[in-house]
Design a protein that fits this description.
The chain is of the alpha/beta class. The protein folds into three domains: about 5-70; about 90-350, Aspartate Aminotransferase, domain 2 (3-Layer(aba) Sandwich); about 360-460, Aspartate Aminotransferase, domain 1 (Alpha-Beta Complex). It is built from 14 helices and twelve strands. The strands form two sheets. A seven-stranded mixed beta sheet has the order 2-8-7-6-5-3-4, with helices on both faces. It has a five-stranded mixed beta sheet with strand order 1-11-12-10-9. Helix 6 (about 140-160) crosses helix 11 and helix 9 runs parallel beside helix 10 (about 245-255).
Length: about 450
């Protein structure tokens, strides 16, 4: 049965009206949600009705019921968990992706959206200074980007010693050693676990979270079997970057595959000012990053990059007689680069963001975020009893009061006030308040508003 001729326009107009109201209110509304999940469920209606409901009415009721339970994550004063806002072109492109409703698996079947994704991938390689011939896959987020790259790494290092895991599996094969620094992101361990590789081998890190290169060298000398070394571009707490030149040289000398977890920090390569932080990162074998962080595109846009396309396609590719595969050997089908066969065209918003900003705009975005973090650190350090704990080199600022109780109380007061949001964590045995500057709209004015809110919250505790 065909829908009413005006059902789509009415429903979409209602969605646009609600979306615009939400975006317009972000600068003034308190950032934390005002309602919990159970309250929202009550407002949505817990029982499924027997009768149909007009689509426009569904959209308006949905927006009204859910809005009190929304966190102001797109706010320019939201600094929690390295979550960026959404740029206008990227958001609009994301709406188009849903309207177009393309299963972006096969190049010959959905060439329109795949062309945009391929261009986005080529531009990312260029902006980040990574090998032009690398394969780029768009996945759900940085966790799956790490998983995808490490799957390619696992199979490649096993093939190097004569074991084909795609046929023989893992049981009974050589152990794959994964070496990580003590302050790697937990999503790396998650990916390694999902890949059946067990717990990684942990080597020490310095006071900023950078992997200890001497300790890495010693661990590499212990065993010359199949090995993957995971390095980090942007520590979760400090924003610090590993010494890629020295670490990659040692790893490759030992025959290891090098993967770089660069969820937000890999974008430092897009600016001449911050590019020295990632010197020699292009000599790794794979890289994971996330466009919804530093680049500020909507959620669901991790990026897996592998220097050797054959390794990625061997790990992720599949064949079936009913699939209309591309005839080109130069351009693989998207599903050969990612774990999914069915997926939306998540790379299209990245194309739109890059096209809207241009090369200079991306550079300016990275510099603006770095400048905002530097200004935040300077302002917070002037507050009585507040200490900045990290060397602020990129977009992360970790601060603490003299004792954990005071830090936790300050964090709670700041979040309750609602003007700015920073997430709590523990680092070096202390409670910390972590400001992750990731939103494209965070400028000097927003930094000043944040500092005023932080000072006010501190005075209350």
């Amino acid at each position: 049965m065909h829908p009413e001729s005006d059902a789509f326009p009415r429903a979409l107009d209602a969605a646009a009206e609600s979306a615009n109201a939400w975006l317009a209110a972000l600068d003034d509304r308190p950032i934390p949600p005002r309602a919990g999940a159970d309250e929202v469920k009550d407002a949505l209606g817990r029982e499924l009705a027997d009768d149909a409901t007009d689509p426009e009415d569904v959209v308006r009721a949905l927006a009204a019921a859910v809005e009190p339970g929304l966190m102001g994550m797109p706010s320019a004063r939201f600094y929690g968990w390295v979550i960026g806002g959404t740029q206008p072109a990227a958001l609009a492109a994301d709406w188009l992706v849903s309207a177009w409703d393309q299963n972006t698996a096969l190049r010959a079947v959905t060439p329109g959206v795949i062309a945009a994704e391929e261009l986005a991938g080529e531009w990312i390689l260029d902006l980040l200074g990574l090998p032009a011939g690398a394969d780029v896959g768009f996945v759900t987020g940085a966790t799956v980007a790490n998983f995808t790259c490490l799957a390619a790494a696992r199979d490649a290092v096993l093939r190097d010693v004569g074991w084909d895991s795609s046929i023989q599996g893992l049981a009974g094969g050589p152990r794959v050693r994964v070496i990580v620094g003590a302050e790697r992101h937990d999503t790396v361990d998650h990916a390694v676990r999902m890949l059946g590789l067990g717990a990684p081998v942990v080597v020490p890190a310095d006071d900023q979270g950078r992997i200890d290169v001497a300790a890495l060298e010693a661990e590499l000398a212990v065993d010359h079997g199949p090995t993957i070394v995971v390095l980090q571009a942007g520590n979760l707490h400090s924003g610090a970057f590993d010494d890629f030149g020295a670490a990659i040289d040692l790893a490759h000398l030992g025959g290891a595959w090098v993967h770089v977890d660069g969820a937000f920090g890999l974008w430092a390569a897009a600016s001449p000012r911050s590019r020295p932080l990632v010197a020699h990162v292009e000599r790794a074998d794979s890289w994971a990053t996330d466009a919804h962080k530093t680049l500020s595109v909507p959620y669901d846009c991790g990026i897996a990059i592998v220097a050797d396309p054959a390794a990625l396609r061997a790990a992720m590719g599949m064949t079936a007689t009913y699939l209309s595969r591309t005839a080109s050997t130069d351009h693989a089908d998207p599903h050969d680069r990612v774990p999914e066969l069915s997926r939306r065209a998540r790379g299209v918003p990245t194309y739109a963001a890059l096209r809207a900003m241009g090369r200079d705009g991306v550079t300016a975005l990275v510099d603006r975020l770095t400048d905002a973090a530097t200004a935040l650190a300077a302002g917070l350090s002037r507050l009585a009893g507040v200490e900045v704990l990290n060397d602020v080199v990129f977009t992360q600022v970790c601060v603490a009061c003299a004792d954990d109780t005071a830090t936790d109380a300050w964090a709670d007061a700041l979040r309750a006030d609602g003007v700015a949001f920073a997430s709590s964590s523990h680092w070096h045995g202390r409670s910390v308040l972590r400001f992750s500057v990731s939103n494209w709209g965070t400028d000097a004015g927003q930094v000043e508003r944040t500092l005023t809110a932080a000072a006010s919250a501190l005075a209350r505790v």
